[in-house]
Amino acid sequence: MKAVCLDPGHGMSNRRAGAYDPGACAFGKKEAEIAMDWVNELRVILQARGHKVVRTRINGSDPAPVGERAGIAEEYGCDIMISIHCNAANGSANGTETFYRGEFNKGLAAKINAALCAALGTKSRGVKTESASQHSRLAVMSFQPCFLIELGFIDNAGDLEKMIDPARRLAACEAIAELL
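and the corresponding structure tokens:
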């Protein structure tokens, strides 16, 4: 069994102490809350399979500075880290993508992305190195291996509907758990 660190993106004190960072927002939904729902679902599934699970934050008021999240995974001796996010653009982009660091992590990133797309019914935007993200380096990825998943686009009504659907979320989390 593995020790898995689950990181629901954004939240309290993410970038600025004492300030709540909701992440991307659209249609009355917040990225930080969707990510938390996904992490909590995945946590239950992984624990039922015998894995040790650590979360970087446990609720909306739990302070979790982005620069400290990789350290949490290290502190608890985790084998892998999964960071959950929602993308945003102009409302017309859609799909799921998974970021990774290092060529040796590309294969698992591709499997995670394919499993998510199949379970969610989203278009695959593929797997990409962290340098292809909007930032050249992603703080959570200083822990390795770490996979940052952009579930879909919160500002695309179709993607959002899929991301907040409990049955699709359960199927997708089961698919991720199968790979770990």
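(Above: one complete record from the training split.) Residues 3-179 form a domain with the Aminopeptidase fold (CATH 3.40.630.40).
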